[in-house]
């Protein structure tokens, strides 16, 4: 009998998308379960009160609750270091492990690991974010040599509302960046109902799509020693990377 693997996922309190999608991703792995802990996030913006939502102290408390379940790894399923700076997630993972003894990863650190593995120099971003948040993400990726200038965003900030963005709208955004020449696309927000659509986009446009709900699950499973090649229907990253 395979060793039971428990994946712990940190969730923005207003997110209603990532939990069901994360569960569906691991449905093909009978020895794996996924468990969630929330902390308060309402709005995505660059104002001081919005940035304060991602104070590590509150996130560590949520991580400690996951550690009570003896999880094998803790993943932050969120993209905040995209605008805060990648070092924010690096520091968060160090603090989670120091506080719980459990290895940690994040959606963005996992995405950046994939970008490096795949040799990506240009990556199109599909997000719901405001202009200033999107610009901050593009600037941060430029610091690691990734050009994200070909992008689409919806100028929204209400985190709970991201779940109401239709698949048709996401289809339009992906189609637009592909028309602009995109070969690698990141759906860069764990509040978008997009991970289940990745296979469709990849097959239709012959592209690679790195959805941030999926990236943290990919890395958490790899850290736990799970063969992700058994996950079919959720994108190339599980099968080929």
Automatic annotation (TrEMBL):
This is Asp/Glu/hydantoin racemase. InterPro entries: Iso_Racemase_Enz_sf, MaiA/AMDase. It comes from Aureobasidium subglaciale (strain EXF-2481). Pfam families: Amdase (PF17645).
